[in-house]
Amino acid sequence: MINALRGMKDLMFDDAERYTYIVETASRIARNYGFDFIETPILEETRLFKRSVGESSDIVGKEMYQFTDKGGNDVCLRPEGTAGVVRAYIQAKLDRQQGRKDRFFYYGPMFRYERPQKGRLRQFHQFGVESFGTAEVEEDFTLIMMLSEIFDALGIGYKVKINSLGCSACMPPYRNTLVGFLEGIAEELCPDCQRRITTNPIRVLDCKNENCQNLLESAPKLSESLCEKCDRDFKRLQKLLDTSGIDYEVDTHLVRGLDYYSGTAFEFVSDEIGAQSAIAGGGRYDRLVEFLEGKPTPGIGFAIGIERIMELVKMPEEERSGWYLGAMDAESLDAILSLGQKLRRKGEKAVVEYAPKGLKAHLKGADRAGAKYCAVIGENERKDGTVWVKDLASKEEKTVLLESL
Ligand code: HAM
């Protein structure tokens, strides 16, 4: 038997329904906020991710599905959606047109070669949004509102964490101060953090190791080293969130695992799904378009991990819908087939059972198919040009003229 690869899952029945419901709900809300659908390729050049997500990130360093294609190109299955959307934005030359504001949403599979566990897959799905050309912190607020609205609509509880990662003016001096602090405690840190002091010191702040976290309690805080503009924006964001009634917490150790962020960073977490508690994450990436050789353009976005919220979603109660059609003898099959065609052309859902059966068996089939109506033609109906119909919700039964349906 051939099975799916480790860390990759089939979505069917209930899961497939949940996936579709999440994507449809999030897409509807994104459109209400002025976002347009975008679809970018799943396979991209490896250097796109190296340059955006960053060589020192775990994603690029350890988790890429990277290979050489038949043409000798170094390519990679996308580990996340932002890089591809930014590439598409630059490739379409949208960065060259002044004053544009472009807002996109997308969904689909992402690939990370991680150690599979609950909430962590190798192929997983994200719903994400990216907004270009808006530098105002009000956009940061709007995206956080939109994400809350999506989770509210899906009936999911969450906690919001925010931080500011500073900009090219205030981040480098903070990084130096932090490195100085970390060098002083280096021997006590875990091996990963010791390595990160030189490769990516900011990532030390969100190390999951308890001992490291204790040592970091007295670390210098980025929120206390922000430049005037970043500080003003971060305070304004908090004020807007205060008045909106969204419950949030400033987490000075929230640094995100991708290198392209600056300014606002945020995560939504759930305490109902175990250790992998982040259900969505995002933030500003005002330098990313430039890093990928576009004209400097501010950007901000987020992505939801669809599998992580799948079991939390409150689905609306499923109602019976459509038609189940059956013949009671072989001679009635043609009439039932053409009734099926007629109903579908009218926009109705209709499923035909081809095997002639007795009424009881057809009613059972209709029930199993979740149909609202069971319509059956037998010898009598065929002769009279009628069809017998039962409404499975109201239990009402009647015989009607085929033409009048
Ligand atoms: P991220 O935090 O790497 O951000 O991923 C976003 C969400 O995807 C996570 O919060 C989590 O729910 C889900 N996720 C990540 N890895 C896995 C996995 N292995 N299995 C299941 N779910 C997973 C990004 O990807 C950024 N591109 C978000 C963004 C958009 N920032 C700006 N724009």
Structural class: alpha+beta
Number of helices: 14
CATH topology of the largest domain: BirA Bifunctional Protein, domain 2
What is the 3D shape?
elongated
Bound molecules: histidyl-adenosine monophosphate
Q: Nearest-angstrom radius of gyration?
A: 27 Å
Number of strands: 16
Element-level helix/strand string: HEEHHEEHEEHEHHHHEEEHEHEHEHEHEE
What would you give as the CATH superfamily of the largest domain? Bira Bifunctional Protein, Domain 2
The whole-number mean of residue pLDDT values reads 96
- End-to-end Cα distance, whole Å, is 47 Å
| Proper CATH architecture of the largest domain | 2-Layer Sandwich
How would you sum up the major sheet?
8 strands, mixed
Number of domains: 2
The side-by-side strand order for the widest beta sheet comes to 1-5-6-11-10-9-7-8
CATH class of the largest domain, anyone?
Answer: Alpha Beta
Overview of this protein structure:
The structure is a single chain. 35% of the residues are buried. The radius of gyration is 27 Å and the shape is elongated. The longest helix has 19 residues, at 14-32. The model has no long low-confidence stretch (mean pLDDT 96). Helices cover 35% and strands 21% of the residues. Strand 15 (386-391) and strand 16 form a beta hairpin. The strands form three sheets. The protein has an eight-stranded mixed beta sheet with strand order 1-5-6-11-10-9-7-8, with helices on both faces. The protein has a five-stranded mixed beta sheet with strand order 13-12-14-15-16, with helices on both faces. A three-stranded antiparallel beta sheet has the order 2-4-3. It folds into two domains: 13-170 and 226-312, BirA Bifunctional Protein, domain 2; 323-401, Anticodon-binding domain (Rossmann fold, 3-Layer(aba) Sandwich), CATH 3.40.50.800. Helix 1 (14-32) runs antiparallel to helix 5 (137-153) and helix 5 packs parallel to helix 9. With 405 residues, the protein is an alpha+beta fold. It has helices at residues 14-32, 46-52, 58-62, 82-91, 137-153, 171-185, 191-199, 210-215, 228-244, 288-291, 306-310, 333-345, 359-368, 379-384; strands spanning 36-37, 43-45, 65-68, 74-77, 102-111, 123-132, 159-164, 248-250, 264-269, 278-284, 299-305, 323-327, 350-353, 373-377, 386-391, 397-401. Bound molecules: histidyl-adenosine monophosphate (HAM). Histidyl-adenosine monophosphate (HAM) binds at residues 80-82, 112, 114, 119-121, 124, 126, 128, 130, 257-258, 278-283, 301-303, 305, 307-308. Homodimer.
